[in-house]
Fold this protein.
Amino acid sequence: MIITLKKNADKKQVDCLLGWLRDHKVTPHVSAGESETIIGCVGDVARLDIGLVQALSVVETVQRIQEPYKEANRKFHPEDSVVNCSGFKVGGGNFQVIAGPCSVESEEQVIAIAKAVKAAGATMLRGGAFKPRTSPYSFQGLGKRGLEILLQAKRETGLPIVTELMRIEHLELFNDVDVIQIGARNMQNFDLLKEVGAHSKKPVLLKRGMSATLQELLMSAEYVMASGNPNVILCERGIRTYETATRNTIDLTVVPILHRLTHLPVIVDPSHATGVARLVEPCAMGAVVMGADGLIIEVHNDPPHALCDGAQSQTPEMFAETMSRVNALRPLAYKLGE
Ligand code: PEP
Ligand code: MN
């Protein structure tokens, strides 16, 4: 339920309304925008007497939210949410590029790539320490040692770290990680989402499941938010279709659609979306023009020998070229309302 307040509503009366809502087991989220202030309500709203709220002198309108996602809903929070990733803001006009290898393989590899992507303009470093692999015989990641290497790279370059969390027991190892990635395969691991929301306020990069609808993606974001962490960044990373020319099918339409449905930032992963290194640049360019709030791109200093996802990894040189083309396109990005 959304309560829009009258302009210049009396603060005491608004506080009184907030207290009344809490007494009725409803949690109010006040969102003071430039043009209006709204109170988004979650909880037992079905029992509230809308007529009673409507009659209050400070209330302009009361509206029920039909969609099952509430906190993630644009109606709940009309302004774009800006997620602060250790000083690098994503959303609301702030654009960041996360780059790095699929997996952490060695200290030399990660440090070399981190320096190269930073020089090219990346603002965050990615790299998997715990890897969700389709085959149990494939490289599973360096685990704890991988995290240590990422933190070493952070110390040397200053780049915040983005890395995947697969099980909640590992959260304590993530203290110095800057952004927690929840991978496509875990997008509907509801227990993990609830635990991350309840036990961390770090930004959560939530990747779309490979056959998830946008509503399912938003419901997964809702799990994290409803558990107490509002800092969610959504990530389109391609979906499964009948097409076999690419690893997945990139769905760039979701960028403007999600911007209408939700206030959360939306970034695009053209690497997993295509699986082909030479397609990463055109898809990154497309994502920027569609209005994405950022990109996450796999970069490897020796793609043919990468332990994971070499075929889709750009070299540092390719990445530098992509960065300059992406930066040139940023002024052309589509914005909500155009
Ligand atoms: C990744 O980013 O390394 C990854 C495994 O991505 P996804 O979960 O989108 O497949
Ligand atoms: Mn990968």
Remarks:
- The mean pLDDT is 97.
- The two ends are 27 Å apart (CA to CA).
- The first helix runs from residue 11 to 23.
